[in-house]
Specification:
Elements: E1 20-23, E2 32-34, H1 58-71, E3 75-80, H2 90-103, E4 108-113, H3 122-127, E5 130-136, H4 142-148, E6 149-154, E7 157-160, H5 161-181, E8 185-192, H6 201-210, E9 215-220, H7 237-247, E10 265-266, H8 274-285, E11 296-299, E12 306-307, E13 316-323, E14 328-336, H9 344-353, E15 357-362, H10 367-375, E16 379-382, E17 385-386, H11 387-396, H12 406-412
Parallel strand pairs: 1-3, 3-4, 4-5, 5-8, 8-9, 11-15, 15-16
Antiparallel strand pairs: 1-10, 2-6, 6-7, 11-13, 12-17, 13-14
Helix pairs in contact: 1-2, 1-8, 4-5, 9-10
Domain Radical SAM core: 16-261
Keywords: 4Fe-4S, Iron, Iron-sulfur, Lyase, Metal-binding, Nitrogen fixation, S-adenosyl-L-methionine
Family: Belongs to the radical SAM superfamily. NifB family.
């Protein structure tokens, strides 16, 4: 199979008006905290990296891709760019890439990452013929990097300040070297942050050129509210042009970047169409695996009105279905929870009891049961509020952020500077 590398609109300026790309938003968690990043990702009105209106499972993403290809047959590239980091969500990322490669063998595949956890996956990325990888490298000097990154979580350990920068930069540069050894085209993004790294970007360019990078994208920093850097002004057009000119001595430049959303689709620079966003919403409302027959939603409740019981304390689960003729949810069953104790086996049994449910709505849940149930295709949603409102929202693909407990919102990173403790 010969991939048409020249058709990638981000790497080839001549292709950007003819060929489109689609970003599949399957990676919500992140493994670092940048001081310019607000992880509020469910916004419809911002066009910046890290923003998406929905999060998809790999199987939902394939359903969405199938629909998107009908609406926009000029899509030549499938990319994964967040809204977190692809390799902070490695299982979802690699599964999605495998599924796309199997069904669309001539499709270009690419990922955009901070590079922290990229190394273990480079060999398989090459086997899957992932042709393009972008790493955002904002500094090669840990002193400067320590001003940009609040924390890094690597191998289940927290790093802060200059230690965080050392770990991140070391992994980024080694990953770039390994990518080139594996024959993968590599783009480096460097975000120009006035007063922080604007005079340092040329050093980044020199170093990544030595390691074999193919192209450099000097991106102007985007001022985002509720971040450490929110009061830093964006770089001027002249500053960006001067840096691009200086760094062009080392690498070709990408100058047509539009700072795409994590759910961007179509021609670069064009806004996602309403029809395409509707297809994304429809995919997100499906069961995690759309081929599963999962007509129900389970709820943990003390009295049957509110979502107000922790998963571990539930003795029974209320099972709701949807009457689409009447446009209302209905209680169809009540199922007894497995006996307490038994560790993971208890949650495996629960997954069997709820095997026809697409989601389980609870007021709290631990990491172990959440992981087991997710692996069985049951989404655990930590909410509070009226049962009927939440269940109806799940069936109709509505935004339920107003029902999410603050801890659950932060687990996804919304409006959160983070603690580095990891996401559930």
């Amino acid at each position: 199979m010969t991939l048409k590398i020249a058709n990638h609109p981000c790497f080839n300026d001549a292709s950007r008006h003819k060929f489109g790309r689609i970003h599949l938003p399957i990676a919500p968690k992140c493994n670092i905290q940048c001081n310019y990043c607000n992880r509020k990702f469910d916004c419809m009105n911002e066009n910046r990296p890290g923003v998406t209106s929905k999060i998809l499972s790999p199987q939902q993403a394939m359903h969405y891709l199938d629909q998107a290809m009908i609406l926009s047959p000029n899509i030549a590239v499938v990319g994964i760019a967040g809204p977190g980091d692809p390799f902070a969500n490695p299982n979802e990322t690699m599964e999605t890439l495998r599924l796309v490669r199997a069904k669309y063998p001539e499709m270009l595949l690419c990922v955009a990452t901070n590079g922290l956890d990229l190394l273990p996956y480079i060999d398989e990325l090459a086997e899957l013929q992932v042709s393009h990888v972008t790493i955002t490298i904002n500094a090669i000097d840990p002193e400067i990097g320590s001003e940009i990154y609040a924390w890094v979580r690597y191998n289940k350990k927290m790093y802060r300040d200059i230690d965080a920068a050392r770990v991140l930069i070391g992994n980024q540069l080694e990953a770039l070297k390994r990518l080139k050894e594996a024959g993968v085209t590599a783009k480096v993004n460097s975000i120009i942050i006035p007063g922080i790294n604007d005079t340092h970007v040329i050093e980044v360019a020199r170093k990544v050129a030595e390691l074999g990078a193919d192209i450099l994208n000097c991106m102007p920093y985007y001022s985002t509210t509720e971040t450490v850097f929110e009061n830093i002004p964006e770089p001027s057009v002249d500053m960006v042009a001067e840096i691009q000119k200086a760094t062009s001595e080392y690498l070709p430049q990408m100058k047509h970047c539009s700072r795409c959303r994590a759910d961007a689709v179509g021609i670069i620079g064009e806004i996602n169409s309403e029809e395409m966003m509707q297809k994304l919403a429809e995919a997100a409302a499906l069961p995690k695996n759309p081929t599963d027959v999962r007509p129900f939603v389970a709820v943990s409740s003390l009295e049957g009105v509110l979502i107000n019981q922790h998963l571990g304390e539930a003795e029974r689960f209320l099972i709701y279905g949807m009457d689409y003729d009447k446009n209302e949810c209905v209680l169809v069953d009540s199922r007894t929870a497995p006996p307490t104790g038994g560790g993971q086996q208890r949650w495996e049994e629960l997954a069997g009891i709820l095997k026809d449910c697409r989601a389980l709505l609870v007021n709290g849940a631990g990491g172990s049961p959440t992981k087991v149930l997710n692996e069985h295709g049951i989404e655990v949603m930590v909410l509070e509020g009226i049962i009927e409102e939440a269940v109806y929202g799940v069936f109709c693909g509505q935004d339920l952020k107003h029902l999410m407990k603050s801890s659950q919102i932060h687990a996804c990173g919304s409006s959160c500077s983070g603690t580095g403790g990891g996401c559930g």
